Structures are given as C-alpha cells and as structure tokens.
Amino acid sequence: MPRNGEFGLTTRIDLNASINELPAKIFIELRDKLVTNPADKDWRALARAVEDKYPINPCMIERWAISGDSASSKLLTWLSSQAMTIKELANYLNKIEFDTYSLGLSPYVDIQIIKSPPEEIDVYEGDPLVMEVEATGQPHPRYQWFCCQNGQDDFKKLVGRTEKILRLNDVTTANAGTYTCQIHNCKDPDKTKFTKYTLVSVAPNPVPRNTGLNPPSGENVIYLYNQMGLRTPSSPDIIPGLVNSLEQRCGSVSYSLILGHPKDVTVGMNEPFVLSVETYGDPPIMYQWFRNGLPLAGQVAPKLSVAHASISDFARYYCVVRNGYKTEQSNTACVKEKFPRPDRNVEIVLVSQPKSVSVKFGGCALFSCEARCCEPLKYQWFKDGMPLKDQTASEIKFMNIQDRRDVGFYQCEISVDSMNENVPRRMTMGALLTVEIPSVKDNVEYNPSDKVALLIGNADYKCESPLTASTIDVQVLSESFRALDFRVVSLLNLTKPEIENAVLHFCDLIEDNVYTVFYFCGHGFEEHGMSYLVPTDAPAAYTAQECVCAQEVLANIQRKQPPVILMILDICRQQGKVKSTVVPPTVAKTNRGNTVFCYATSVGLAAYENKSGGLLVHHLSPLLRKNIGIDALVSEVKEEFFRVQKHSNIQIPQLVSNLLEPRRSLTDKISKKGQTEAFQIRDQIWNAAHQKPAKQEIRFDEVGVVIELDFQSEFSNVLHLFTRVTDPGRTSDCVGKITNFSPPISQQGKVAEFKKNSRVVTKISLQDIQKLKENLIVDVTITFFISGIQYFLQRRVNLGQPLVAKLRLWEQTHNFTLSSRREGIEQSEESYSM
Question: What is the model's pTM?
Fold first, then answer.
C-alpha cells in the first residue's frame, strides 16, 4: 500500500532544508540502499548524476571507495557540505530511478501509461518481435509481461520478462497470441494498470532460412522476369530498388548455396567417374570445376563427368559456385586410381641434392634439389627434422644472414602431388649450413632488415599526480629515433587496454631481423621483481591487476624473435601503494640473448623529472647517434649521470642485459636485400596507422569564402588542424576556426593564431585520437564582417578515422597476458649496475 495512507509526502520533512537535516532513520536507509543497489542506482550512479552542478574529483571518489567507512555516507556528507537541499537530492535520485517514495522523499503518483505497443503486430517466422511500453509514476513503475496463446483469456506470466521492452528473437508460430503488460508501483491492486491487448500473428517466412535463398543482382532480376514470362519493368530505376529491398530482407539470413559436396571416388584406368555438387538458391547459379587448383575448361555444370579416366584425372577436384549475391567453394574430392598399372614409371628419381655450405656473416645461401617423375611433384623443406613453414619450393634461399638461427641441418621431402599412395616419398640427403659468426673484436657490419620503436608517454592521470616530462621525452626520443631510420609509433596518455593493444599491433611490425625499441615514461612501480606501468585510467589505490606488466610487454615482442630488444623503462621502481593479492605472472626462461633493459633508476629508488624533461632522456638522447654497441650506449648513460652529481645523488640508472651480440648498434644501416616484400608490408602497416586526412577546401558560397583545412601529426594519436582563409570573398576580417569536434577526444593546449601570407591561420590540436569509435567530425566556423556587422557561418566536415583511430585500441584484449601465453625472456643473472 502507498506510504502514509494519503498517497502523499510526510509533512515532517522540509524539502528545502539541507541534507544533513534528514531524519536519522531515512539517512541510514538511504545510505545503505546506495551501497546495496545495482550499479545503475548505487552511490557511484548518484555521483555521476550530480556532476552537472556538483562536480566531484575522481580521486575523491576512489578514496571513498577504498576507505573503511561507507562510501555512500561520505558522498551524502560531501553533498551536504555543498548546500544541496533535500528536494535537489530527491530530483537527482529520481534521475537514476531510485525509489525515493519508500523513503518519504516523494509523494505517491499514479501510474500514467505514455506508450503502449500497437494493437496488432504481424511478423514472419525467424524475425524478431519487439514490443515496448513506457510509463511514469512514483514509486517508479515495475513491469511484467503476460501472453495468452489459446484465445480463451488464459494469460500466463512470461517468466523473467520484467523490462519495459519485450524482445523475442527468432519467433515461431508458438509465439503467436495476445500480449499485455502489467504495470504496478505498489501492492494495491486498484493501482495496477495493464496495457491494451496486442494481437501477434506469426506467418511462415517467404524467405526460408538456411536454404540458400539470397537476393539476386540487378541483371538476375531481369533474368527472373524473363523466366517467369513477365514483362521487364519499363523504368530502370525500379531494378535497384527491388534489389535493395531483397538485400534488406535477406541480409540477416544465414544460408549456404552448396547443400551437397562432391565425394571421393576410386576408379581404374579408362573407367568412367562422376563428381557432382548439389545447390539451392536464386538462379542463375554458375559453376566452375577445378583440378589440382587449375580451372577445367568447359566444366561449368553441376556435374563433372569423365568417360575414360586417364593418368592426369587422378587428382584433387573442387567446384566454385556463385550467383548474383555470393560465391562458395565446395569441399575437395579426391579421385584415386584403383589398380595402378605396373608398366607406369611413377618412381621419384632424385637428380640433384642440396649441398652443405658455409657463409660469412651478412652473406647469402641457397639449397636446391631436383627430381623427376611422371606425375607432378611437391616439396617440403625441413630444418633439424622439423618442417619449415611456407618452404614448399624446390629451393630455399637465405639472404643477409645476421645470426645463428639459420644454422642447421636441412633436407627436402619430395612426394607426388596426387592421391597415388603407391608412390613412396623421397627425402634428400642432408645439407649443413654454417655461418662464420664474428667475434666481438671483429669490425663487422650488422644490417637489420628494419628498425621499429614504440614510445608511450603517460602524463594526464585520472587519480595520480600529472607529469610534465612524459610528453617532452616522447617528442625528443621520436626525433632521435627517426634520425636513425626507425619507424616510430609515439602515443600519449593510454589506458590499460590501449597500452596492451598498442603493443599487440606494434608486434605486427616486428620480424626476425628487425631491431625493436620499447619506451615507457609515466608512473610505475615494482613488485615481486616485476615492473609495472601505470595506465592513465588506473584507480587511486591501483594494484598490479590494474597496470601493465613490462615483462608481459617483452613476452609479446619475444614471440617475433627480433635480434635486439631495447626496453627503456622511465619509471619509479619503488613498491606500489597497495600490495597486490594476485600471484605475479611466471616468465618462462629462454636463452635468446637479445634483450637489454635500460631502467631509469635502480630498485627501490624513484625516477625524477624537471621542467625540461626527465633525467634519463636528458642524458640518453644525445648518446643515441653514437656508433657504439647497445650495451656500451646504455653504460655511457651512467657516466653522464655521474658527471652531474645532483642527478646521481637521487637517481642511479641500471642496465640488465643478456645480449649475445653486444656490438649491435642502433645506428646499424638497414638492408632490404631479400626482404623487399616484407619491408613493403611493414610500410603498409605503419602508413595505415599514421594516415592523416587529406588537405581540403571548405567553401562558404553564401559569402564567397574559401577555407583551407590542413593537417599535421607530431604523435601517432594527436592531430593538429590548421584553418586558413584563402579567399575572403565579400567579407572583411574573416577568420576560420574549429569550434566543435567528436567526443571522446579532447583539445590539447590552447588554440593558436598566427599570420601566413597576411592571412590569419588558426591551429588546434586534438588528442586521444585512439579513443574514436566513429569517424572524426569537426565543425569549421568562420566569423566575418559585412558592412560593419559581424556574422558567422558553419560547415560540418567528416575527417574519417585518422592516425591510430582505425586500430580500435580501446577494445578489451584477450591474448596479451603471460597466463594465456607462457613465453618470456630470461634476464641474465649477471646484471650490471650503471
């Protein structure tokens, strides 16, 4: 029953009074419900609801969450300190559909039905059924759907259907019937209301599901008209509309053109055989048969018939089927010979064998073999007894050999490319590849096939103190690594999923002869010997679970087995604020000998910054272009620190290395010999993630103004937009600006204005490009004067998904952690303090 018997608000509460004047019983009940309610009606939801007038620092919210006291009590106390009245509180609680009536903060309001389903709904089998109802009242209405399927007014409750919207997917005739929704907000049955009856009729679907029916193309529509003896539509405009309607009708239908696949057969020489494929779908359906991957001329029917089988007919067959909408390939069927003729020479004869070879460092090698047979042959190369992926030619090449990984024992297995199982496979003799690896004292030239660097700087934290050095240091290192011909990916202010996805996409640029650098600058800590990188969205009391483990970053990079990995971690190495309760990931030990860790500071110490940047980059950047080994390079950073006593007194860098080739240098020249195609693929991957919108002109024909819109990018997720008036038209003092842009990206810094060729140019920088889920939309606004009166005009421009937006870094990752991929790298037991 409604509270107070009069369906009204108790007179003991003054709605204009402050929250701290709430009766103790009501305050406690409100406090407890804000803790126990679902997430959309709890204290956090209330904090979000009041943000329009009472913004709350996120750090404060996180401190409330981890405090031993009730977070809801602290929120209500804080709102009271902001002079919020009880009436305001009730309004905000109603926004999140909190039951304020039961607390006595709102009067009882009868249910009013605002929206009801239509009285009749006709649907086809397999289609979704959606009915929606909307009502108001206090307390907030609750819903229960009922259905009558026998027409005898015997309504049954639909269990679990207690939302405003009733949605049934893939309806059948069993879902036909009469539906209504019960709406109530108290126990009084007289206050309960029902929506009008809705009669739902379910008819058989004219487009059968999973039968292969699909919309034909425009040409096939005309064909169908002719086949049915109908006159072709006189207006050509009708055809596209008919095709579109058919596509919309069938777009969600899952189907297959092929119902029956060809079967394996075994026949003798000169005997007949037939292969067939069974299809069902919109005509015309076209066929093409293939033998051993090559199309058979004239074989364009559902059946492939051979009257007299010959040697060449014993092979693998499949059929490609298509109509005006889709294309499918059948399963492969094998035609085998029943009784191989004894007089046929099907033996594989080895003509030449691979020969052992020894090459110098950076040289090339070739193994080849030759065989003869009356049937087509196929090849598979092996190294040390293991098959090599994609090495299925008669020869195998090695270009620009850079390390020991190519050293080994090579053989080639040769077999017939048919189903004749009576022909034995042949294995060539083994050939040994040896490489003269130079000693440390030799003056050898290393030549990587490419060099890549991922630089991440986190500065703007949600619940941590902001940093000034991160942006500066990433910018400085970007310029230094680009000067060394590195492909640089530079990103600012990333959340945990964004860091993980950035690493996974970065790994697409890495191969077995690509130098790799990873740099992170931001907050960090150490726990159980692991280094953790703090993302910008970490809560105030973050643990290892909310952060990214640097060793997991390394494990992902190690999967590509590059010759050099330089991990530069510009973070503090002290214990975290809150000790994690989770067991740290286990790093599997390997001996790849390719990793150098450059820590900004030693274990237990902090890393520092000043106005010009971080101390590590201050000393590291000038050394990067020195033609010295990576180990020596990082060691020299220590010497630079000790030359500045005030730096070495507070921060001591550390080197941890297991590099087996310490003479490798970041200055080594890139060689594309034998790697041109792979180099071009990396080009495409990198360019796709750094594509800026094209320069364009925005015309305001009303006043004859032309605006030039141009773009630059300094970081991979920051876009600079320049607007310049190229033609002022009939206006004076005309200036163009970007006045609005798509959320959730934000503006970096202030809008800048300067003159170029006597025209005003404005520059705005948009950051967080990686957060874009849709295209970037901006508003270009011009302000101008005509006859001394100021006006403005605006154009909306779609800039697509620039830079890294198309990588969708905001998505959750599922294959990043060590627990799902037990790989890693052993850090050498012998570490060298810098």
Answer: 0.54
